Amino acid sequence: MKLILTAAVEKLGEPGDIVEVKNGYGRNYLLPRGLAIVATRGAEKEIEEIKRAQDARAIRDLDHAHEVRQQLDGLEGVTVKVKTSEKGKLFGSVKTGDIADAVKAANGPTLDKRNIELPKGYITTTGNYQVIVKLHPEVNGKVNFSVVAE
After folding, report:
1. Cβ–Cβ contacts within 10 Å for residue 102, how many?
2. Phi, psi (5° rounding) for residue 138?
3. Which domains, ranges and CATH numbers included, belong to the chain?
4. pLDDT tens-digit profile, the chain (150 residues)
């Protein structure tokens, strides 16, 4: 069975890879869990679009990682606006995707939300925070941001 992976599967491949698997594994495990889609011409074109978007987000090499870290260090005015109670407690929490969107909105580089490490799990109150972004195995960047009520 020929499938296109939509998520990383250990010992099989990364998102966008076209893989050949046994029928039972594809039908009973990969497809029901949303880890893959059946490979068709239309799906292959869609995967090409996804790969182009991933390449735009990806850190190409060590020099590029240092360049992105310098952009993050010089970045100011990163704010995440959230709905809060009267006491400043959030309805929900700030997630890595929210931080990546806030960095992009502050004219920063495009970050992959999976590379952002939140301090102690989730952020559930307003205030100033700092997160670490893994840009490369040898390079980590830091993003300072504030969580404010709408």
Report:
1. 21
2. -105, -10
3. 2-57 (3.40.5.10), 62-149 (3.10.430.100)
4. 999 998 889 899 888 888 999 999 999 999 999 999 999 888 888 778 877 877 766 666 778 888 888 988 888 889 999 998 888 788 888 989 999 999 999 988 888 888 899 877 678 888 899 999 988 888 899 999 999 988
Whats the size of the chain, residue-wise?
150
Q: Write down the pTM of the prediction.
A: 0.63
